[in-house]
């Protein structure tokens, strides 16, 4: 009986073709919608070389609920031919005027690929879904190009935690922590990414204590990872001048 069970399991595993590689891909890892803009565009591409795919898009709020206001997607569903590019537009409706004017608001842009129906038997098809942060940035707080506000954040050491104070009107996401080592750095493994809301404080757990100098990495508007070196006086830490 054991041999029969093993043979059956092996047969079931081999009759399915499983491919979880995304065909429809985005051109970014986050999007910023500047207040006053009529719309913004997100570029997508079907990287499958032979098959057309449908691309379904929608917006979710901070709680993961699908919404149709204050943002709309144009078009919500479209066909993208093999190895071709297309555009998804995000536009606002009048309800956007009710959003806070003194800080960013966060939403999530979702993109799901829908593969063509296979004419082969015993094929398991996987619909891959991408999800990125969508920040609405009111006109009143749109910074100058290449401005850096992340260096205004102060951090207090609390043993195996960092108390992060974000006085800015922007969301800030931290993705890495490291010890400085000359001109290099030694990454601290096990640090979990955290996002600090505008004008708020957050306590972030860290896998090991940091010294009087440490490096923390944030994500900029373009999805790049940027290092900031903090220098501490006691437990109170600020960005090192000239960094």
Automatic annotation (TrEMBL):
<comment type="similarity">
    <text>Belongs to the periplasmic pilus chaperone family.</text>
</comment>
<dbReference type="InterPro" id="IPR001829">
    <property type="entry name" value="Pili_assmbl_chaperone_bac"/>
</dbReference>
<dbReference type="InterPro" id="IPR013783">
    <property type="entry name" value="Ig-like_fold"/>
</dbReference>
<dbReference type="InterPro" id="IPR016148">
    <property type="entry name" value="Pili_assmbl_chaperone_C"/>
</dbReference>
<dbReference type="InterPro" id="IPR050643">
    <property type="entry name" value="Periplasmic_pilus_chap"/>
</dbReference>
<dbReference type="InterPro" id="IPR008962">
    <property type="entry name" value="PapD-like_sf"/>
</dbReference>
<keyword id="KW-0574">Periplasm</keyword>
<dbReference type="GO" id="GO:0071555">
    <property type="term" value="P:cell wall organization"/>
</dbReference>
<keyword id="KW-1029">Fimbrium biogenesis</keyword>
<keyword id="KW-0393">Immunoglobulin domain</keyword>
<dbReference type="InterPro" id="IPR016147">
    <property type="entry name" value="Pili_assmbl_chaperone_N"/>
</dbReference>
<keyword id="KW-0732">Signal</keyword>
<dbReference type="Pfam" id="PF02753">
    <property type="entry name" value="PapD_C"/>
</dbReference>
<feature type="signal peptide">
    <location>
        <begin position="1"/>
        <end position="22"/>
    </location>
</feature>
<dbReference type="InterPro" id="IPR036316">
    <property type="entry name" value="Pili_assmbl_chap_C_dom_sf"/>
</dbReference>
<dbReference type="InterPro" id="IPR018046">
    <property type="entry name" value="Pili_assmbl_chaperone_CS"/>
</dbReference>
<protein>
    <submittedName>
        <fullName>Molecular chaperone</fullName>
    </submittedName>
</protein>
<feature type="domain" description="Pili assembly chaperone N-terminal">
    <location>
        <begin position="24"/>
        <end position="141"/>
    </location>
</feature>
<dbReference type="Pfam" id="PF00345">
    <property type="entry name" value="PapD_N"/>
</dbReference>
<dbReference type="GO" id="GO:0030288">
    <property type="term" value="C:outer membrane-bounded periplasmic space"/>
</dbReference>
<keyword id="KW-0143">Chaperone</keyword>
<feature type="domain" description="Pili assembly chaperone C-terminal">
    <location>
        <begin position="164"/>
        <end position="226"/>
    </location>
</feature>
